Each structure stands twice: as C-alpha cells, then as structure tokens.
C-alpha cells in the first residue's frame, strides 16, 4: 500500500443522493456565467472540476447511463463528452468517465478514450460501467448482456479495448521523409479479437435475439487513434464486476472487500453528507431521505469535516484511496475543498502531481508496454 | 457583377481537419504533430480569429489499406471526432464544431445523445456531417459487421436522422421510431431547445436527394471549377425545391484549398511547389498503383510507366478512400499515351494528371473570385483543407478574410454564438409548422 491516500470525487449531476437535484442550487457551481454561449451544464462542469483539481483530488469520475435512471435527474450529458470538455481546462487532475461495455461499441469506446487521453495529455481513465441497463435493448435494437453473460462480455470488452490501445506502437509514426512513409506499418497491429458467447453474431439475426444473452463479436483493428500518452487509459472498475487482473483500480464498497481484488490499486467508495454552515450532515441526510429513500452501496459518512478527515486519515495504508460520493455537490464539495482536503495536504496524505504528470504517474502505476510491440 | 443572382451574399468559411489523402504535407519542417491537442487547438482558434462558421473533423472507421496493406504514405490516425470537439468547445466560444459521423456503424440512440451532449456543452455550436460509409470491410471493426446493403445506405441515413431528431425533441418523453433499418424506443437524457446542424457529404444522386430532404449544409467536392460548382448548386437547389423546401434552405460549402501569394505568378509558383510536396515519389507510385490495382512501389518514379495493362480482377483493392471507378484499362492506356507523347516519367505524369485543386492567386484576385462564387450562386462559402497544419490557415485569416471584409462580403464580428445563426439557417425542419419561412 502506498502511504499517500488518493482522493477521487464523483462529480455527476447535482450529487449522488437521488434527491440531490431537488435541492435548489445555491453556490458558484450553479451560477450561470454572464458570458454568452456558456450553458449551465458547461459552467457547472468547469467550476466543479476546477474546484476538485485545486483541492488536490487525484481524479474525478463522471457517472453515466444511456437512458434515464429511475428517481434521478433525467437530464444528463454524455460522460466522455463532459470529460473531454474538462480536459483543456485542467492540467493535473485525472478525468474518468463511465462508459458501459455492453452499450457502447467497443471500437468507438476505445477511440473515445484514446482521444480523451490525447486531449488531456495523459490524464484519462475509463470507469467500466457495470450492471444491467434497463431499456438499453429497446434503445439499441440488439440484445444487451446481463448476469453472467454481462460479466463475461465485460471482460472481453476490457480486453479488446486494451488490445486496441496497444494496436499502435508508441513509435509507429516515423515521418520518414527519405522514403515518404508517415508510419511504419509494421508498428501497427490488427488485433483480430473474437469474443466468447454463442448467440447470433450479426444483424439481422441479432435484432431478434433474446435479451440478456451476449452476442459474440469480432474486432479487426488497428484503432484509428494513435496510442495515447499513457499507453492505456487507467481502467477503473467495480471489484467483482470486472476481473481484477484487467483493472488498474478496483472500486470496493466496504473495507471488507479491499483485500484480494487482484487489482494494483484499491479505492473504497465513501458516501458523504457533511455538516454545513446551515445544517448538520445528519439533518441534511434526513431531509434528503424524506424526498427519496437511499441506501448507498458504499461506506457511509455523515458528520463534520473533521470527522471525515479522521476517517480518511485512518484509511491511509489500509486502502490506496477513497472515492468520495458527495450527497449534494453544492453542499458537500465546498466543505470538502475548504476543510477536508487542506487538512490532508497538511498531513502529507495527498499525492502532489508534478507538472505534466499523467494520471498513471500520479497514481504510481507503470506505463504499460504494448502487448504487440516487438521486443527490440 | 451586375448579373449577380445573390448580390448581398456573404462568404462562409469552414476548416476541414484533416484530409486523409496526400493533401496534407507532413514532410514540411513547419508541419506539426497531427494528433497533439495543441495542433487542433491552434487551428480551431485561428479559424475562430478569422470568424469562421465551423471547424470540421473527418472520420474514417478503419485505417486505409492499399493492396491489403495499411496505407503508410499519408497522415494516419486521428482523434474520435465528438470527443475532440468537446475538448475544443472548452477553448473556443463562437465557432461551430462539426463531427463527421457514419450512420452504418453507429447506434442512433447513442450517437444522437453524444451529438446532443456536444450541442448542450458548446451552447449550440454542434453539427453532424452525415456520411454513409457502408462497406463490410469497415464493418469488421463493429458488432454488426457488414450488415447493410449499399443500396440501403441512404434509407438508413434518412431513418437514422429522423430518429435522432425525435430524440433531440423528446426529452422528458419516451421516443419510438420504427423503420426498416432503425427500430428503437428510448427516453432521451439531454434537454435541447435546438438541434445540431445537419451537414451531408456524398455526391451520388441518392446522396443529393438525401441532402435535399434532410440536410442543412452540403459539404461538396465541387470546389475548384465555377461552372461545375454552379451546375451542382443548381441541381441541389432543384432537388431541394422538389423536396418541398425553399431553395436557400440548403447551404453548399465545397471542400477546397487556397494557395495565396502577393502576386498571381508567385501563387502559381507556390502551387507548383505545394503539389510537388504533396505528390512525393512514393505517393506517385502509390497513385499509379491505385489505377493498376497492384503494388508498383518497386518501380522507379523517375522512370517510365508499366508496360502492361492493369489486371482488372485486382482493381478495387484500395480501401477507405473515395476513388470513383473509371475503367482502369482505359485510364492506364490514356496515361501511358500521354507519358509517351510528352516524354514524362511516372512522377511527372502523376503530377501532370493531378488537377490543380482549389484557388490559386493573389489575395485580391482570390477574394474577388470567392465573392463571384457566392453572389453567382455557385456556393455559399468554402470548407478549407489546409495543406499545412497547424499554420496553414494563417494567411487566409490574416489576409484573405480582411480582403473579403473590405468587399462587404464577410462578417466583421460574430453576431451570435450559435452555428445555426452563423449560417443563417432556419429552425430545424421538424420544428416548423405549415409555414416554412422562419
Ligand atoms: C467532400 C467530402 C468529404 C467527405 N468526408 C468523409 C469523411 O471524412 N468520412 C467518411 O466516412 N466519408 C466522407 N465522405 C462521404 C462518403 O464518401 C460518402 O458517405 C460515401 O461515399 C457514400 O455517399 P455517395 O455514394 O452519395 O457518394 C465525404 C464526401 C465528400 C464529398
């Protein structure tokens, strides 16, 4: 275990409590700027991510779903698009959108994350979506895997996405003026991936296949995007939903799950509702729960900033970090950045990214060598 | 210019980044990284400084091959378009952001959502350049494989667009769409008050009819010869009216390049130099190989053309580039005859055959010519492919744009932050009632 504690922050929407969007927005995150063309979505994204970066958060995650999730704010901008928008506005923080492996085409997924890695100069990650997506089948007009089929398909998609990220050697672009060759084609690789699964593979048969069963697929490659600065984006996934050896970071929802994930790093999710100037965390949570009952799949912390600092400090050396799930961004993030993260900085509990560091650098993860690169 | 059909027309400019063909000179010392974000930022910000309507990204969902091998002579590799444009949205404020996106290998619910997301975050600056690449070779990268027959490509495009529009309008409801190639039911997640602007690129009669029915801007390939462009524009206007829309509902921005210098003679000299940089010896052999349908890279570019005819059964192996199918034997014979008559080597012949594209001249003469185009009805503007990246737009912005402004044919400032308004477009087609005019 590293001695620093990585703090990640989920920044989706108004917050992680299902009643968060019912709380009247009341901070600078919510004030639409006077500048023309700057939408409230864009303003919120800019200010929340900037606050997290300035406070020393290692990476932010962007939750997402193709279709609205019952009981939550139905308005939600695509996560990769949000992360990309934040990329040139930041310089140190990691940007980790959720993309669901059973929903998004694997080839598009790999291209999008590789583009995000270039746009962020190596600060991209992929939060692997997990769980069934009700409504996806009807939206996509093809079967969407569920249960064990989804687990198997997820492993296949993570594998092929990593293959595609490796399909360009780092030095594939040679720009050899003598021969007129822009690339050395021997340094690009067809991945020729074939998934498992036994349903019908291609439309039109695909359209009438039963839902929940995985439909096998193949991907030829190479990727259309050159290898990114990190080689591979940081792959973050829920322990149990993705085999640990395919992950860079396993997310767990309790300390009991932190051992034996098989992933290089383990972060525990902590759902926080903090005391603010006007109400205690407990009062706030009670009010929120009255609007919409909620049992987070995470360690739950409700209370003062000092109490959270004590909890986080006690987790140093136990896990590699925590991902904070703020109940209401407008209430909890200001307290986090004003009172919680500075205390951790003072205690030297937070990593200090060097200028130009990639997310892998900050996390202390090695840069993967390409599985296809010739060993020279 | 008393016979101008559109005497008050302005020139609209876009920039297309980047051509996946030999138009981009990567051998020049000033040619920057073709993948670093900074390069894209510089081009987009230069275009915005020049008050352009839009910044465009192309798309190819499989790397080009020739004779079964990855094509290695041109720029290879580019970012995912919507992802890159979302990043550019954060560092620009007015310019439109157009993503080329294919309808065969995207899911309407997913693509409509991503375009809506770009539109929402950019404050109304998104556009979708609709392309129909449908071949099974590209399909090898996707779950559905080569599932769509070529004849159905525009049927799919039409249904896809209608489904996307329903999704863009359907926030807060459940949207369903049923056609022969699209069948979906989804609750949209992005609230929009306007639609991304719809561009179309594709030149067949079916492509033009699709544009006349659905698109708002055509990204055409008619950007060199005035009469050819006017004939295209008149054809498109007629199709648009037949589709029940006013003729100016569909704007035309031909792809083109500008080669500018202080005088016409200098510009022609520069054009010659540019072409020599574009058609390297290896590229000359590659272009010849496309006609012959075989790998001719071992030939001497300074030597004579192959003595044998193309082997017909091998032609058609060039993948992922838009080469229109003339009879290769006839073409090869014509090329050989010309080379013999004029005593040309392979490279000289290819250079001679490679028609000068775009506009070459002094700033003033090109500005006059562009004004003639838009006022005569040959196009509404131009989509420029710079042959040098990222600096290739500088002289356009620093010299040509002011010359157009002097002629009263170019905006002096942005008057809006919406791409739809930059282009002078009406409300999205599905939003109009019985009345078509805005
Ligand atoms: C100027 C121009 C630019 C184009 N750019 C692209 C592109 O970047 N990606 C792509 O897949 N198709 C592109 N195409 C479109 C495809 O060539 C088109 O979808 C396909 O050829 C089928 O259309 P058609 O049969 O009507 O020509 C472009 C077409 C034109 C005219």
Number of helices of chain A: 9
CATH class of chain A, named: Alpha Beta
Residue windows where pLDDT falls under 50 for at least 5 positions of chain B: 434-438
The CATH class of the largest domain in chain B is Alpha Beta
Number of domains of chain B: 2
Major β-sheet of chain B, in short? 8 strands, parallel, barrel
Beta fraction of chain B: 5-15%
Strand order of the largest sheet of chain A: 1-2-3-4-9-10-11-13
N to C succession of SSEs of chain A: EHEHEHEHHEEEEEEEHEHEHH
Largest sheet of chain A: 8 strands, parallel, barrel
Span between termini of chain A: 33 Å
Shape of chain A: globular
Based on DSSP secondary structure assignment, what is the total number of beta strands of chain A?
13
Strand order of the largest sheet of chain B: 1-2-5-6-9-10-11-14
Q: Can you describe this structure?
A:
The complex is a heterodimer of chains A (376) and B (438). Chain A is built from nine helices and 13 strands. With 376 residues, chain A is an alpha/beta fold. In chain A, the strands form three sheets. Chain A has an eight-stranded parallel barrel, surrounded by six helices. Chain A has a two-stranded antiparallel ribbon with strand order 5-6. Chain A has a two-stranded antiparallel ribbon with strand order 7-8. Chain A is globular, with a radius of gyration of 21 Å. Chain B has 438 residues and is of the alpha/beta class. Chain B has two domains: 12-262 and 357-437, TIM Barrel (Alpha-Beta Barrel), CATH 3.20.20.30; 280-353, no CATH class. Chain B contains 14 helices and 14 strands. Chain B has helices spanning 37-49, 81-90, 108-122, 136-139, 153-169, 205-214, 226-242, 264-278, 281-292, 328-342, 346-353, 363-376, 394-406, 419-422; strands at 12-17, 54-57, 65-66, 69-70, 96-102, 126-131, 175-178, 183-186, 197-200, 217-220, 251-256, 258-261, 359-362, 381-384. In chain B, helix 3 links the parallel strand 5 and strand 6 (126-131). In chain B, helix 3 (108-122) crosses helix 5 (153-169). Chain B starts with 11 loop residues before the first strand and ends in a 16-residue tail after the last helix. Bound molecules: flavin mononucleotide. Flavin mononucleotide binds at residues 58-60, 100, 102, 131-133, 201-204, 206-207, 219-221, 255, 322 of chain B.
């Amino acid at each position: 275990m590293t001695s620093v504690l990585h703090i990640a922050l989920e920044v989706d929407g108004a917050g992680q409590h299902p009643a968060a969007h019912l709380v009247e927005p009341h901070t600078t995150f919510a004030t639409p700027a006077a500048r023309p063309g700057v939408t409230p979505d864009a303003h919120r994204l800019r200010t929340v991510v900037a606050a997290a970066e300035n406070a020393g958060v290692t990476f932010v995650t962007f939750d997402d779903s193709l279709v609205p999730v019952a009981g939550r704010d139905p308005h939600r901008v695509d996560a990769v698009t949000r992360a990309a928008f934040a990329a040139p506005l930041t310089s140190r923080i990691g940007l980790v959108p959720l993309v669901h492996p059973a929903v998004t085409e694997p080839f598009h997924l790999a291209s999008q994350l590789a583009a995000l890695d270039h746009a962020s100069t190596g600060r991209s990650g992929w939060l692997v979506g997990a769980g069934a997506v009700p409504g996806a089948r009807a939206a996509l007009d093809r079967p969407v895997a569920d249960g064990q089929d989804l687990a198997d398909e997820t492993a296949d998609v993570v594998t092929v996405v990593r293959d595609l990220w490796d399909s360009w050697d780092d030095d594939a672009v040679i720009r050899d003026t003598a021969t007129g060759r822009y690339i050395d084609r021997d340094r690009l690789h067809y991945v020729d991936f074939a998934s498992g699964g036994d349903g019908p593979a291609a439309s039109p048969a695909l359209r009438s296949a039963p839902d929940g069963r995985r439909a096998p697929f193949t991907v030829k490659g190479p990727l259309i995007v050159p290898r990114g600065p990190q080689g591979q984006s940081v792959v973050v996934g829920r322990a149990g939903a993705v085999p640990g050896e395919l992950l860079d970071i396993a997310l767990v929802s309790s300390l009991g799950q932190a051992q034996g994930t098989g992933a290089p790093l383990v972060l525990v999710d902590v759902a926080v509702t903090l005391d603010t100037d006007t109400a205690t965390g407990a009062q706030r949570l009670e009010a929120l729960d009255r609007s919409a009952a909620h049992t987070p799949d995470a360690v739950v912390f409700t209370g003062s900033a000092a109490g959270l600092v004590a909890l986080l400090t006690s987790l140093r050396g136990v896990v590699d970090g925590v991902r904070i799930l703020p109940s209401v961004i407008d209430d909890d993030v200001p307290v986090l950045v004003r009172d919680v993260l500075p205390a951790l900085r003072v205690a030297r509990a937070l990593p200090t990214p060097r200028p130009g560091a990639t997310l892998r650098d900050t996390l202390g993860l090695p840069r993967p060598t390409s599985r296809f690169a010739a060993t020279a | 210019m008393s016979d101008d059909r559109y005497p008050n027309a302005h020139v609209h400019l876009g920039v297309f980044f980047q051509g996946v063909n030999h138009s981009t000179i990567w051998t020049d010392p000033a040619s920057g990284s073709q993948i670093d974000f900074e390069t894209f930022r510089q081009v987009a910000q230069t275009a915005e400084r020049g008050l352009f309507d839009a910044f465009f990204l192309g798309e190819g969902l499989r790397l080009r091959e020739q004779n079964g091998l990855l094509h290695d002579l041109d720029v290879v590799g580019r970012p995912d378009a919507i992802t890159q444009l979302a990043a550019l949205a954060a560092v620009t404020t007015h310019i439109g952001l157009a993503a080329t996106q294919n309808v065969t290998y995207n899911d309407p619910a997913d693509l409509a959502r991503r375009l809506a997301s770009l539109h929402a975050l950019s404050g109304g600056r998104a556009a979708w350049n609709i392309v129909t690449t449908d071949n099974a070779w590209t399909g090898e990268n996707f779950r559905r494989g080569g599932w769509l027959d070529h004849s159905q490509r525009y049927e799919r495009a039409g249904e896809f667009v209608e489904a996307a529009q329903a999704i863009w309008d359907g926030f807060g409801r459940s949207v369903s769409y049923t056609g022969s190639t699209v069948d979906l039911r989804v609750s949209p997640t992005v609230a929009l008050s306007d639609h991304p602007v719809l561009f179309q690129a594709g030149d067949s009669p079916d492509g033009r009819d699709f544009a006349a029915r659905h698109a708002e801007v055509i990204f055409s390939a008619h950007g060199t010869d005035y009469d050819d462009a006017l004939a295209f524009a008149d054809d498109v206007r007629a199709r648009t009216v037949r589709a029940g829309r006013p003729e100016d509902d569909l704007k035309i921005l031909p792809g083109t390049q500008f080669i500018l210098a202080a005088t016409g003679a200098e510009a022609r000299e520069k054009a010659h130099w540019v072409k020599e940089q574009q058609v390297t010896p290896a590229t000359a052999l590659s272009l010849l190989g496309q006609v012959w349908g075989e790998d001719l890279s071992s030939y001497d570019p300074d030597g004579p053309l192959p003595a044998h005819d193309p082997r017909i059964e091998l032609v058609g192996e060039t993948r992922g580039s838009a080469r229109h199918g003339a009879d290769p034997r006839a073409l090869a014979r014509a090329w050989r005859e010309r080379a013999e008559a004029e005593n040309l080597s392979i490279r000289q012949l290819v250079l001679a055959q490679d028609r000068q594209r775009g506009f070459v001249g002094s700033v003033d003469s090109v500005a006059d010519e562009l004004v003639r185009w838009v006022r005569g009805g040959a196009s509404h503007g131009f989509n420029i492919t710079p042959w040098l990246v990222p600096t290739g737009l500088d002289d356009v912005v620093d010299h040509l744009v002011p010359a157009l402004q002097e002629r009263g044919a170019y905006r002096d400032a942005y008057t809006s932050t919406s791409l739809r308004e930059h282009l002078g477009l009406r409300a999205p087609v599905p939003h109009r009632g019985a009345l078509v005019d805005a």
